UniProtKB/TrEMBL annotation, chain A:
Zn(2+) binds at residues 32, 35, 51, 54. It comes from Allopseudospirillum japonicum. Its EC number is 2.1.3.15. Residues 28-297 form the CoA carboxyltransferase N-terminal domain. The keyword Magnesium does not apply. A zinc finger (C4-type) spans 32-54. The gene is accD. Pfam families: Carboxyl_trans, Zn_ribbon_ACC. It is found in: Cytoplasm. It comes from the Bacteria. This is Acetyl-coenzyme A carboxylase carboxyl transferase subunit beta. Pathway: Lipid metabolism; malonyl-CoA biosynthesis; malonyl-CoA from acetyl-CoA: step 1/1.
From TrEMBL, chain B:
It comes from Allopseudospirillum japonicum. It catalyses: N(6)-carboxybiotinyl-L-lysyl-[protein] + acetyl-CoA = N(6)-biotinyl-L-lysyl-[protein] + malonyl-CoA. Pathway: Lipid metabolism; malonyl-CoA biosynthesis; malonyl-CoA from acetyl-CoA: step 1/1. One of its GO terms (cellular component) is acetyl-CoA carboxylase complex. This is Acetyl-coenzyme A carboxylase carboxyl transferase subunit alpha. Acetyl-CoA carboxylase is a heterohexamer composed of biotin carboxyl carrier protein (AccB), biotin carboxylase (AccC) and two subunits each of ACCase subunit alpha (AccA) and ACCase subunit beta (AccD). Component of the acetyl coenzyme A carboxylase (ACC) complex. First, biotin carboxylase catalyzes the carboxylation of biotin on its carrier protein (BCCP) and then the CO(2) group is transferred by the carboxyltransferase to acetyl-CoA to form malonyl-CoA. Its main location: cytoplasm. Keywords: ATP-binding, Cytoplasm, Fatty acid biosynthesis, Fatty acid metabolism, Lipid biosynthesis, Lipid metabolism, Nucleotide-binding, Transferase. It is an enzyme of class 2 (transferase). Belongs to the AccA family. The gene is accA.
Length: 313, 319
């Protein structure tokens, strides 16, 4: 990495190495953290951040996630007006207020959950997605409140609710306000359950702590993307507690499926069709013709020739 | 250093040691010595009052984990009668980190569920330091659903560092076990009163803590993460636990100001462990009052209030 390229795309390489800041805006090339293939960024984006070479699922922003999941032009954002506040005047090495401002600037989101109402192959749904780049997708009061409003909307309209989780857990800077969001979101979901309104939880890399131990595990169906890290306690905490090496594949989607915690693992490109089909069955909606199932993003073959990656990337 | 006293209590420990010494030599000049003992005891009480009138969040945190602090089974013995312990989740195992069973409170049958820590090394290990595994939460759920069937109010006692972070716990679905309890407790058709008697450690505490009324002992804590855990993540050093404790506002008093706590139960001077009997009396009284309030409500009203109580937490303030 001591070439001309370092000067052009230094931020990408550094961020990939440390596995932070996955959404570096600049740079035409990106290396797959799993198979090291050098990927043409527009091509990668077309594949919804799934490596075309090895199928590794990289993170996807909340807004992009919902835009590709819901039918084009069907979406309406919910509870966007809610903004986080610093009730505790929390300060560690930085002020919480400053951390919020930095996260808002970086992600262009007000907080770590985006909620939209729309249709999925014509079926009305409410969907929400966690923005991992916003303070690790952590759940504070606004995330909880938005989630509850989303659930309440689904309940009121009797339409399915889908959540894409990606979160490190509770937001420490909001202390007990944050912890109580676990109970608050779970109580809202229980109302849906009692009313027979479907809730599908999709877990994407990663889902831990307070989010895993509340809303994410409460789906009528718990679905995960391949190879996502999912658990209650983080692997490092467990390693320190039990003082032994963790088993291969521990806390990966496949591990959870094997242990009975998940209903299925679904490739990102098939989520839209799969969840659409499930929800149509659960709500007794008529079956769709096969071609309508296929989502526009995944079915396009690349026609144009791709540029060659630089040699020493 | 006297292990029965925390670091900030050492001046009290020194006085107490002096009193003890005087008692041992108490045979000659009895009169003078007993006067001296009395004087020192008064001084010790004053000193304790002084030190305890101005505790930091970190000091309260240490008190909440004091090795001699009464645990759930101590309170069950002191507050209730006719306790029958019920074991196991009927699926996998009996988790000793959570105890539960039916008993009577002033004659009235109730369901009790609580975290249980161990006193000596062997017992600590058996109780897994009060850190439940999924089967513990599933046992709790089973008892709560049983309480609902038989119309028994549920009284939970919270005292855990957190849910156990281990490979086996993850394999058996720690997250799911906690989440499921949160959901079901929100609509159980019987009153639920939760009392934090020591450490309220995060999701592992909340999993038996969704309630109609939350009570906290004066020197108990409730937090989203331990002060040490928070410090090592946000300050990059567990040494800054005192700062983290203060920043998160984990003490009963602070949490009452923030609107989370329905009743704060006073502790005897120097903390619950100085007089478990008096502590138990205070808890019994608070439980009785809370139960009377809740049992006066129709189930529908009770459940609506419980739901609205949860919805209030962190809700945007009305303009």
């Amino acid at each position: 990495m001591s070439s001309w390229l370092t000067k052009i795309v230094p931020s990408i390489m550094r961020s990939e190495r440390k596995d932070r800041r996955t959404n570096v805006p600049e740079g035409l090339w990106r290396k797959c953290p799993k198979c090291d293939s050098v990927l043409y960024r527009p091509e990668l984006e077309k594949h919804l951040n799934v490596c075309p070479k090895c199928d590794h699922h990289m993170r996807l922003s909340a807004r992009k996630r919902l835009t590709v999941f819901l039918d084009a032009d069907s979406t309406q954002e919910i509870a966007a007006e809610l903004e986080p506040t610093d009730r505790l005047k929390f300060k560690d090495s930085k002020k919480y207020k400053d951390r919020l401002a930095a996260a808002q600037k970086e992600t262009q989101e007000k907080d770590a959950l985006v909620v939209m109402q729309g249709t999925l192959n014509g079926l009305p749904v409410v969907a929400c997605a966690f923005e991992f780049n916003f303070m690790g997708g952590s759940m504070g009061a606004i995330v909880g409140e938005r989630f509850v409003r989303a659930a309440n909307l689904a309940l009121e309209k009797q339409i399915p609710f889908v959540c894409f989780a990606a979160s490190g857990g509770a937001r420490m800077q909001e202390a007990l306000f944050s912890l109580m969001q676990m109970a608050k979101t779970s109580a809202a979901l229980e109302k849906l359950k009692q009313a027979g309104v479907p809730f599908i939880s999709v877990m994407t890399d990663p889902v831990f702590g307070g989010v895993s131990a509340s809303l994410a595990m409460l789906g009528d169906l718990n679905i995960a993307e391949p190879n996502a890290l999912i658990g209650f306690a983080g692997p490092r905490v467990i390693e320190q507690t039990v003082r032994e090496k963790l088993p291969e594949g521990f806390q990966r989607s496949e591990f959870l499926l094997e242990h009975g915690a998940l209903d299925m693992i679904v490739h990102r490109h098939e989520l839209r069709a799969k969840i659409g089909g499930i929800l149509r069955k659960l709500t007794h909606a008529p079956e769709l013709a096969t071609e309508e199932f296929l989502s526009k993003e995944t079915n396009e073959e690349t026609t144009e020739a791709l540029p060659e990656p630089p040699k020493d990337f | 250093m006297n292990p029965n006293f925390l670091e900030f209590e050492q001046p009290i420990a020194e006085l107490e040691a002096k009193i003890e010494e005087l008692r041992l030599v108490g045979d000659d000049n009895q009169l003078n010595i007993s006067e001296e003992i009395e004087r020192l005891q008064e001084k010790s009480t004053k000193l304790t009052e002084q030190i305890f009138s101005n505790l930091t969040a970190w000091q309260v945190s240490q008190l909440s984990r004091h090795p001699q602090r009464p645990y759930t089974l101590d309170y069950i013995r002191l507050i209730f009668s006719d306790f029958d312990e019920i074991h196991g989740d009927r699926h996998f195992a009996d988790d000793a980190a959570i105890v539960g069973g039916i008993a009577r409170l002033e004659g009235q049958p109730v369901m009790i569920i609580g975290h249980q820590k161990g006193r000596d090394v062997k017992e600590k290990v058996r109780r897994n330091f009060g850190m439940p595994r999924p089967e513990g939460y599933r046992k709790a759920l089973r008892l709560m659903q049983m309480a609902e069937r038989f119309k028994l109010p549920i009284l939970t006692f919270i005292d855990t560092p957190g849910a156990y972070p281990g490979v086996d716990a993850e394999e058996r679905g720690q997250s799911e076990a906690i989440a499921f309890n949160l959901a079901v407790m929100s609509r159980l058709q019987t009153p639920i009163i939760s009392t934090v008697i020591g450490e309220g450690g995060s999701g592992g505490a909340l999993a038996i803590g969704v309630c109609d009324e939350l009570m906290m002992l004066q020197y108990s804590t409730y937090s989203v993460i331990s002060p040490e855990g928070c410090a090592s993540i946000l300050w990059k050093s567990a040494e800054r636990a005192a700062d983290a404790a203060a920043a998160m506002g984990i003490t009963a008093e602070r949490l009452q100001e923030l609107g989370f706590v329905d009743a704060l139960i006073d502790e005897p001077l120097g903390g619950a462990h100085r007089s478990p009997e008096r502590m138990a009396d205070n808890i019994r009284q608070a439980l009785g009052q809370s139960l009377a309030r809740l049992q006066a409500l129709d189930t529908e009203v009770l459940l609506e209030q419980r739901y609205q109580r949860l919805m209030r937490f962190g809700a945007p303030e009305a303009a």
